[in-house]
Amino acid sequence: MSYSKNFRFHTTETIIEGESLFNDATGVISFNVTKGIIFSVAHSLLDVSVSSICSMVGAIALGTGIGWIEGKILNTWKADAYVDFTFSLCLAIGGYIIADQFLHVSGVVTTLFTAMLIITKHKEISTGARKQFHKYWDYLGFITNSVLFFLIGIPLLTVEKAESVGVTLFPILVAPFVIVMISRAVVVYSGSTFLRIFRVRIPLQWQNILTLGGLRGGMAVALVLSLAASYQFKEL
Question: Is it the case that residue 67 has pLDDT exceeding 50?
Answer without folding.
Answer: yes
